[in-house]
Amino acid sequence: MCLILFSYNRHPLYRLILAANRDEFYERKAARLDYWPDMPNILAGRDLKAAGTWLGIDRQGRWAAVTNYRDPGHVVANALSRGNLVVNYLSSNLAPDTFLYDLKSNCRRYNGFNLLAGGCESLAWFSNRADQIRILQPGLYGLSNRLLDDPWPKVLTGKKGLKQAIASGNEICASQLLPILTNDTQVEKRHLPDTGIGIELEKILSPLFITSKYYGTRCSSVLTITYSNEVEFTEYTWHYDGQTTRKDSPRTFRFSIQP
Fold first, then answer.
1. Which of 126, 129, 165, 256 sits CB 3.0–4.6 Å from 100 for a disulfide?
2. Contact between residue 33 and residue 253 where contact means Cβ atoms under 8 Å apart
3. Cβ count within 10 A of residue 9
4. Which residues neighbour 204 within 8 Å (Cβ) at sequence distance 6 or greater?
């Protein structure tokens, strides 16, 4: 993922409300959201190049999501795929913080990343560019290609939109959050972060929903988990033909968390 907005334990009905965009090169093939034939406990989309994923959940309600940390000056040659971090967590039986503490010892084998790892009892965040593990308290958070809650314009805009969308305390459906994720307004140059990629590229990558010639938002996801352990996971897949963007019919999966 390149943008993750989430409410954790602050809504009267939902333990988790998460809305996220995955940005990637258009040529990199991916499978849509589904249960994996070789790992049927995992529900996720799948990167068909490295076989990992950006966001996934298992039948026990353990979930994880990863974003890249934009740092072009510090690229690890022959780095491990960051998408496997989500798979490794979901295929383990470790608590979120335990998994992240174990990961910390070899985290430099990956290029920069942020990893969210959650379960029914806790949620934790770790970045190998901050070298810290944080157990998250109830709140509303935003994460893009820097550290958790870094005040990038897209993060601030997304958090504001999510806060407004859930303020009523009513039930949430994916279509209510989709307008937040499809905001393609570019940010004025004077408000852009400087991550070492040049001001023009910063501007192209500044919207919540990215469109460019070779790279852009490939899918939008909404994941909710209620306090009664009901999960709903919806994915919208996007296609760009050089002029217009279209989306496939959304895929939605619902299940009850198994003890």
1. 126
2. yes
3. 13
4. 186, 210, 212
Q: What residues contact 259, with CB distance under 8 A and at least 6 apart?
A: 60
Distance (Å, whole) CA 256 – CA 68:
30
If one counts every other C-beta atom within 10 angstroms of the C-beta of residue 86, the result is 25
Confidence of residue 50 (pLDDT cuts 50, 70, 90): very high
Consecutive H or E run containing 175: helix 174-181
Q: Of 238, 157, 167, whose CA–CA distance to 17 is shortest? A: 167
What domains can be seen in the chain, in order of their start residue? 3-242 (3.60.60)
C-alpha span between 122 and 136 (Å, rounded): 8
Quick one: tokens of 29? 């093939």
The beta-carbon contacts of 210-213 under 8 Å, at least 24 apart in sequence, are: 210/2, 210/21, 210/23, 210/184, 211/184, 211/240, 211/245, 213/242
Residue-wise pLDDT for 113-165, tens only, equals 999 999 999 999 999 999 789 999 999 999 999 999 999 999 999 999 999 99
Q: How many CA atoms lie within 13 A of 138 on its CB side?
A: 6
DSSP string, 75-141: --TTPBPTHHHHHHHHTS---HHHHHHHHHTTGGGB-SEEEEEE-SS-EEEEETTTTEEEEPPSEEE
The residue type found at 237 is T
Q: Which pLDDT score, from 0 to 100, does residue 242 have? A: 81
User: CA-CA distance, 54 to 115, in Å (whole number)?
Assistant: 10
Number of Cβ within a 10 Å radius of residue 45: 23
Q: Give the pTM.
A: 0.97
